[in-house]
Amino acid sequence: MSGTTPGGFGLLLRKLRLHAGLSQEQLAHRAGVSVRAVTDMERGHTRGPQRRTIQSLAGALELEAAQARQLEEEAATGRGRPHPSGAQVLSRALSLPRAPRDFTARAQALAALGALADSADPADPPVAVICGAPGLGKTALAVRAAQLLAPLFPSGQLYLDLQGMDPEPVVPRDALARLLAALGIAAQAMPHTVEDRSGLFRAVAAEHRLLLVLDNAADEAQIRPLLPTAGSGLTIVTSRNRLSGLESVHRIALPLMRREEAVTFLTRILGPERVGAEAQAARDLADRCGRLPLALRIAGQRLAARPEERLHKLASLLEREERRLDVLRTGDLQVRAAFTLSYQQLGPTAQRLLRRCALAAGPDVSPETAALLTGIAHRDAALLLEELCDRGLLQPHPAAERHRFHDLVRIFAGEQLAAKDTAETQQAFLDRTMAWMLARATACALHFDAERHDTSAIDPDPATAPAGRDQARAWLEAEQEQWLAALHRARATGRHRLVVDTAAAMHWFSDLTEHWAQWVDVFRYAADSARALGSRREEATHLNYLAWAHGICAHRPAAALEAADAALVAARACGDLLQTGWALGYGAGALRRLGRTDEAISRLRASLACHHDNHTIQGRLAEMSTLNTLGETLCHNGRAEEALIHHLNVLDICRVDHPGLSPELLAAYQAIALSHLGNAYAALDRWQEAELPLRRALTTFEQAGSPARSGPVQLALGRVLRHLNRTEEAHTALTAALHTLTAHHHPLQTEAGAQLTALKNILTGEPAPH
Q: Which among 55, 51, 49, 41 has a CA at the least distance from the CA of 12?
C-alpha cells in the first residue's frame, strides 16, 4: 500500500485512539488486550500484530470499514510474508540434528507417530509427547521419526532444543523468536509479547504442513505457547517429565529395550561378527546396562573405539555395581551425568527421598517405607514419589501404590546417599524403619493366630493398620522384602527378642503361604536368636518351624531332618513334650521323603504318644497333624486301608467342639484330612469315593488362598477324574494343577505335566510315549 511508512502502524493506531478519545488503558480494556501490548504497538515495538488483534482493536475504536482496512494493511506490512503453502519455507537454523545410523527398535512408537501424521486434522493438529527416564533415547526416536515422516511434510521440519535440563531453560518468548525467524519472519516484524508471538507463530504454522520437534521440554508452561492450534502439521515433544498437565496430546512412554533389542543395538554398533563371537557376553552386557539405550550406546561406543577389547572384559567390569557408573562413560557420554541433570532439578526433600529409597530392600518401595527412611509424613512421601515418577527417576507400579528403581538409577541414588548422608544417619533411619516394619508385620501376622485376633494395641500406627485378614495378608505380601530385611537387621544387630517374637507371630500365617521359600530364613533367624537368648524351649519351637520350612517350602528333606533332630535335642533338654512330639513328626516327614519309610512310621507313632494325653488346643492340633502325616506315610507304603483309619480319626476330632479354636483353622485341618482321605481311596482304586473329599478339600484351600495345598489336590482330582473317564473335567483340573504347581515351583509340576500330556494323547488318539 502506498503511503505506509516505518512505524506507520503505531502512529496510525495512536491517531485513531486519540480521535476516539480513549486512553491506552481504556482501549486495552475494550479490545481485550494488555496495556503493555497497546503501548508496544504505538511505540513501534510491535509492528505486525496478528489479524484477530487488529479486529479487536478496530471494534474497540468503532472504526469504519475503510479505517479498519487501512489499519490491517499497515499491520500486514510489518508482519512480513510467509512463503506460499506447500513450499519449503524454513531457514537452516533449526534443521534436524544428525541421527545415528544404528537406531534400533521402537517400531511400535514409530508406528504410532506415523499414524498421527497420516491422520492429521487441520482443525486439531496432533501433538505427541515422548516421555521417559533419562537415557531412554527420546531424542533419537523423535529425530528418526522426523526423518521417516519428512515426505509427508513438504513445508519442512523444525527442530528446537528447549534445554529443559539446563539451569535456565529456553523461555517461551525466545523459543517463539527462533521459530518465527526460521519461518521467515523478520526481526523487526516480530511482536514483543509472548502472547502475540504465539499468535503469529500459530497463524503462520496454520498455513503450512510442518513437522515440529520440540526437544527436551522443561514443563507445560514452556510448551503451551509453542503448540500450533491449526494446520496439517505434527508436533513431537520430548521430555524427561511426563508433562501430564498438557491436554489433548498423544503420549508415548518409552519402555526399556527388550534383551534381544539391546543385543541388536550392540550388533549395529560393533558389527555381527564381533557380537556373534561373544554372544553370551553381549547378552550379559545388555543386562548389566539395564537395557537402557544410553548405557548400551556408551558400552558399544567404548568397544568400537577399542577393537581389540573383548566384550567379556567389559561385561565383567560392569558386574561390580560399585564401579558400574564409572565404567559407563566414553568421550562426552556419561550415564551418571544424565541422572545428575534430573537429580539437580529436584528440591532438597525430593533429593533426600530419592537417595534414601536406595536403602529400601526389594525391587520397589511404598510411600510408607519412603516416609520412614526419609523422616517425613506419609502424605508428603506419596506426593514426592509421584513427582519422581513424573521426572522419570522412578517407575510406577501398574496396579499398586509402589515405585521401582531402574537398576542404574538405584546405583546412582546409592552414590548420592554415600555422599550426602553419614553412616550414622543411615543406620539411624534403618533402625527406625526396622522397628516400625517388624511391629506392623507382627500385628498383621497375628490376624491369623488360632488363639488371638485383636492386634490394634501392638500396631505402630493403629489409624492406618490393615483391618481384617485380607488387608493384613495384602500388606504382608506387598512388604515382604521390607520386613524380611528388617528381621535380618534385627538379628544382625543383636535384637534377639524382637526376632523371636516376630517369627512366632508369623507361624500361623506361614501355613497359608507354604510356597514362600523365605520361611527358611525367618525361622533360622529365630532359632539362632532363641539360642542367643538361652531359651531352649523357643529354640526347639523355631527349629521345628525351620524343619517344616525346609521340608514343605524349600523341598529339602535332608535339611529338614537335620533341623528336626536339633529340635528334638533342645525339646528333650527342657522337657517340653509338645515340641518333642512336633520334632518327631517333622523328622518323620523328612525321613519319608528320603525314602526311609519304616523309620518315619516309627517316629510318627512316638510322636502320637507325646500328643495323645495333651488335651490343650495345641495338643489337639499336634495330634491331628501327626495322624494325617502317619496316614499319608502308610498310604505311600502301600498300606492305604490303615491310612483311611487315621484320616477318618482326624475328621472325628474335627467334629468335636474345641473352645478357643478358630473355625478357619479347624476347617484347614479338616481339609488336609479330606485331601489325604481322597488320595487313600484313589490308592485303593475306589475312584468314586475319592472325588468328593478331594473337591471339598480343594474348595477350602482355594477359599483360604493356599496354592501350595490346592495345587497337589488339583492334580489328585485330575487323576481321579481321568480314571472315571470324565476327560474334559480331568483336563480342566490337570491344567489348573500344572499352572498352580509351576507358578510356585512345586516338585509335583513334573507329574502334572506328564498326566496332562497322557490325557491329551488319549483325547487326540495318539499312542502314549514310552
A: 41
Task: Identify the CA nearest to 73 among candidates 11, 7, 10, 9.
Answer: 9
Cα(519)–Cα(463) distance, integer angstroms: 29
CB 604 within 8 A of CB 612: no
pLDDT one-digit tens code per residue, 256-295: 999 999 999 999 999 999 999 999 999 999 999 999 999 9
| pLDDT over threshold 60, residue 623 | yes
Nearest to 233 by CA among 190, 187, 201: 201
The pLDDT tens digits for 669-718 are 899 999 999 999 999 999 999 999 999 999 999 998 888 889 999 999 99
Interacting residues of 703 by C-beta distance below 8 A, sequence separation 6+:
none
Task: Give the pLDDT band of residue 317 (cuts 50, 70, 90).
Answer: very high
Based on the number of CB atoms within 10 Å of its own CB, is 265 exposed (0-12), middle (13-18) or buried (19 or more)?
buried
Supply angle C-alpha 592, 598, 599, rounded to 5: 75
Q: Are 107 and 144 in contact (CB under 8 A)?
A: no
- The closest of 240, 241, 243 to 227, measured between CA atoms, is 243
Q: Which residues of 529-558 are buried (b: 16+ CB within 10 A; e: fewer)?
A: bbbeeebbbbbbbbbbbbbbbbbbbbebbe
pLDDT at 42: 84
- Helix ranges (DSSP H) in 656-686: 663-683
**Is residue 78 within 8 Å of 47, Cβ to Cβ?**
yes
Answer whether 0.85 is exceeded by the pTM: no
**What is the rounded distance in angstroms from the CA atom of residue 642 to the CA atom of residue 649?**
11
Q: What is the three-class DSSP state of 212?
A: strand
Instruction: Read off the pLDDT of each residue in 114-126 and give the average, rounded to a whole number.
Output: 89
Q: Cα 729 to chain center, whole Å?
A: 37
Alpha helices in 224-270 (DSSP H): 259-270
Enclosing H/E stretch for 709: helix 707-723
